[in-house]
Amino acid sequence: MAFHPADSPLYRDLFGDADLAALFTDAAEVRAILLVEAALAKAQAAHGIIPQDAAGAIERAAREGTVDPASLAAETAMAGVPIPAILKAFRHEIGDPTLAGFLHFGATSQDMIDTGLMLRLRQALTILETRLSAILTRLRALALAEADTVMAARTRGQIATVTTFGARVAGWADPLYRHHAQLAPLRQGAMCLSLSGASGTRAAFGPKAHQIAQHMADALRLTLPDQPWHTSRDRIADIGHWLASVTGALGRIGQDVLILTRNEIGEVRITGGGGSSAMPHKANPVAAEMLIALARANADAIGSLHHAQLHGEERDGAAWAQEWLGLPRMVVQTGAALRHAEALLTGLEVNRAAMARTLDATQGLVFAEAAKCALAQKMPMAEAASLVSAACATVRDSGQTLRVVLEQMVDGDLDWDTLFDPHAQAGDAPRRARALPPLPGDSP
User: Fold this and answer.
1) Are 193 and 216 in contact (CB under 8 A)?
2) What is the spatial distance between Cα 428 and Cα 140, in angstroms, rounded to a whole number?
3) Is the model's pLDDT at 60 over the cut of 90?
4) Phi (first) and psi of residue 382, to 5 degrees
5) Per the record, which residues fall in region Disordered (predicted)?
6) How many Å apart are CA 117 and CA 331, to the nearest integer?
7) Which of 71, 276, 386, 398 is catalytic?
8) What's the pLDDT score for residue 274?
9) Tell me, what DSSP letter sits at residue 348?
């Protein structure tokens, strides 16, 4: 196994994601940093800080040059950051020493690395948003299709009352809708330029420092914050929190499906499950298992980003490096979770007959709350609760149904058919299942 399973050819389809991992390769990081350096040079040239021909040479080298990340390893290990080694290789790509001398003018390593990270995170969030939208569309369709499919609700692991599978699915989708809506403000608040210079003052940029920063932010389509964020890392933590929240919501789906696919329950099936080396009859719910595992992994990783907020003074290399260990892994794990969720929902089959059998197997006890409320219309609530509790005990002892027992215990007319009709006792569940809104572009 590799250092992390997402990097392993053997395990990467379980724990990794090729599209998102590509944004966190050494080559992708170097490319992003070169683009940031080019944007800085163009902004400085536009405001007369460096010559136009220097900016042009820097931009051409950033666009056309090739820097081998492996050649930067030794110097990166010495410096603690790759920027000095990248700049040396970049100046070689520029060629002319005079023009190359204007590269990285007034900037600091953290500005380039953090801004390059933002460019890659923006791409990552676009990929994640596309996948999340597809999952929400699929969940909404499933909720609508199963809005009236009655099943047993379960609380604290025990059968409780009647609900519908559509309502269960709507509950799965509910937090994911919120996470989807949070993306726009997250991008606005977190996708920021970092250009604050050696210690946050931009002194090396001179009197046009703010104009240069604004020009650069506009060119890179990033927000320009009022304050330096070298040591204000809440934006990184916000991104990590969003990632952990998404995988947590997906993990909840996996947990529910894992329970519902148990042989003794069998209320849903997942086609295409994994096989067992020892037991030919098994079809293991791999996608559901991975959703749970990845949710737990991101829940662990978000703690490292919270620790990394403890940046000191104007810059802090130790806390900064801690982000590098956690954030890329969280992005890739979120991509993997969304991919597994898509596979799970694609292969999900609802066993309505099994859901009906579960309700029947309760011998009517699933209607105990409804019976108590109906009787409370004819007697005090405490008396109704006591009567139904006694009836439930009789059901367990005798094997009779709750309806039969109550009909023997209760004088007066009740609408027994409605009281013990699961569709009539599903309450607000069908409406909830139909309440999920379409995303833009989806059918109403």
Assistant:
1) yes
2) 17
3) yes
4) -60, -40
5) 421-444
6) 12
7) 276
8) 52
9) E
Residues 163 and 295 in one domain: yes
Q: Could you tell me if 308 and 418 lie in one domain?
A: no
Mean pLDDT of the chain: 94
Asked if residue 337 and residue 217 are part of one domain, the reply reads yes
For the question of residue 315 being annotated catalytic, the response is yes
As a whole number of angstroms, the distance between CA 132 and CA 69 comes to 33
Instruction: Confirm whether 441 is domain-assigned.
Output: no
Provide the whole-model pTM: 0.94
Q: How many residues does the chain have?
A: 444
Residue type, 443: S
Indicate which residue of 120, 131, 168, 315 is catalytic. Answer: 315
Active site residue 276: yes
Using an 8 Å Cβ cutoff, are 406 and 392 in contact?
A: no
Pull the structure tokens for residue 16. 């990794």
Do 287 and 148 reside in the same domain of the chain? yes
pLDDT of residue 233: 96
Nearest CA to 16 among 32, 31, 1, 33? 1
Please give the distance of CA 19 from its chain centroid, rounded to a whole number.
Answer: 15
Q: What is the CATH number of the domain that holds 35?
A: 1.20.200.10
User: For residue range 98-156, what is the model confidence (pLDDT) as tens digits?
Assistant: 999 999 999 999 999 999 999 999 999 999 999 999 999 999 999 999 999 999 999 99
Q: How far apart are CA 336 and CA 349, in angstroms?
A: 22
Q: How many domains does the chain have?
A: 2
Distance CA 142, CA 83 (A): 49
Q: CA-to-CA distance for 156 and 79, rounded, in angstroms?
A: 53
Closest Cα partner for 364 from 285, 420, 416? 420
Taking Cα atoms as reference points, which of 308, 181, 293, 298 lies closest to residue 245?
A: 298
